[in-house]
Amino acid sequence: MLAIVIPYFKIDFFEATLLSLDNQTDKRFNVYIGDDASPDDPSLLLEKYKSNFNFTYKRFDENIGSTSLVKQWERCMQMTKDEEWIMVLCDDDVLAENVIAEFYASIDEVNQQKYNVIRYATAVINQHSETISKVYEHPKLEKSTDFLIRKIKGGTRSSLSEFVFRKKVLQEIRFKNLPLAWYSDYLAVLECTYFEYIYTINKALVFFRFSEINITAKKDDVIPKNLAAFHFYYYLLNKKASFFNSEDTDILLFRLEKTFLNNKKSINFWLLFTKLYISKMYFKKYIVFIGKIAQSIKK
């Protein structure tokens, strides 16, 4: 069985999300809605759908998503029961009507091969639910490391809602608590696959909503996003470098250096950065980078 967890806070597009669940041709799923002390009570909306699909709603007294989205995701996931698979669906994203049907059409193969992460093809919609991007499809089987590098290079897009995780693995690995949960989903995909394969369903779409009110579109949170990016790349290079070849490692190093350059005044960044390069014996790379810093200061 599949659990669909919705960490709820914004009501703006929530009905479209609920409607997409109502429209599923296969209703073998349970929905768990965790209200992060939202100022917008969704009770009237939920009343409309109470007989249409199985859902459990819980309002939390404390808003924690404003300080840790990951902690909000986790307490919402704790609402689930004995489902084997879990999807964390954002409260403004939308599922095509065959998403659940295609999940069950693929699940035997997924279980036989013991894949832990399933991914759907995606498209981007705007605040009017108009599609504003191409359809992003993926190889049926793709190493999660290859996916990350492809994403870094701009070859694809990705967001949390399109992934389905084997629940027991996600509960063991857990989402890393990065600022704004920025990169927390990518890291979960890497670690839940054990840096091996993602299984893709291209016959169904998850629609990611790009609007002024979601984190992706916001421009006033550059500092926490940069901090999350630094710790993401640092963690991979420090703890998981063996899963990447030399070319990919250089790409990760470049991204780490870029985040560092965006916050050169951070003493903690300096210490971590220097420690990493020395421990990995990147002496030449370190000298070259110090040269970049000097040029940057000169400018």
Overview of the molecule:
With 299 residues, this protein is an alpha/beta fold. The chain has two domains: 208 residues, Spore Coat Polysaccharide Biosynthesis Protein SpsA, Chain A, CATH 3.90.550.10; 77 residues. Helix 8 packs antiparallel against helix 9 and helix 8 packs parallel to helix 10. The longest helix is centred in the C-terminal third of the chain and has 18 residues.
What's this model, at a glance?
The protein is of the alpha/beta class and 299 residues long. It has helices at 14-22, 43-49, 69-77, 99-113, 144-152, 167-173, 184-192, 222-239, 246-261, 267-279, 283-298; strands at residues 2-8, 29-35, 55-59, 85-88, 94-95, 117-125, 141-143, 163-166, 197-209. Helix 8 (222-239) runs antiparallel to helix 9 and helix 8 runs parallel beside helix 10 (267-279).
Secondary-structure map with pairings?
Layout: E1 2-8, H1 14-22, E2 29-35, H2 43-49, E3 55-59, H3 69-77, E4 85-88, E5 94-95, H4 99-113, E6 117-125, E7 141-143, H5 144-152, E8 163-166, H6 167-173, H7 184-192, E9 197-209, H8 222-239, H9 246-261, H10 267-279, H11 283-298
Parallel strand pairs: 1-2, 1-4, 2-3, 6-9
Antiparallel strand pairs: 4-8, 5-9, 6-8, 7-9
Helix pairs in contact: 8-9, 8-10
